[in-house]
Amino acid sequence: MKQSLLNIVVATGLIALSPAVLSDEIVAILDLEFIEDTGDTAAMLCFGEDNTDCADWATYYLFEATPLRVIKGELPDEPFHVLFGRHALKKQDFYDVVALIEEREDARPEEPQYQISGWGERLRMYCFDRYDGY
């Protein structure tokens, strides 16, 4: 039990000090319940000499997120909707996900107010890379 608590404290400290986590971003441990594939493009893959032949690479999935623990920032206490789009993401529920979350500034009130921009597994050290289009 003590070792698990120590791992959580160390992981929390690493995340809080990580330069990849900006001041307005949120880090939390979530359970994600798959709702639907929105069909909206999350990322494109382009081919050819001048990258003009493009196709959808990933679409956004809508999940109901239940916050288990907020490590940095603030989230609603109750379950909320969140978008996440990554290539080859399975249409399933995910549990104990450590997520880097951003508020969607351009979201209308009826749309999800949050988007996952990176994720990892609980109790492991990880870094969030910045990619355009993810």
Concise description?
With 134 residues, the chain is mainly beta. It is 12% helix and 49% strand.
Task: Please name the defining characteristics of this protein.
single chain; 134 residues; mainly beta; five-stranded mixed barrel; 1 helix; 12% helix
Account of the 3D structure:
- With 134 residues, the chain is mostly beta strands.
- The protein has one domain.
- Helices cover 12% and strands 49% of the residues.
- The chain has one helix and five strands.
- The protein has a five-stranded mixed barrel.
- A hairpin with a 5-residue loop joins strand 1 and strand 2.
- The longest helix is centred in the N-terminal third of the chain and has 16 residues.
- It is globular and about 45 Å long.
- About 11% of the residues have low confidence.
Order of helices and strands: HEEEEE
How widely separated are the two ends? 36 Å
Count of the separate structural domains = 1
Radius of gyration of CA atoms, rounded to a whole number: 16 Å
Question: Could you report the average pLDDT, rounded to the nearest whole number?
Answer: 82
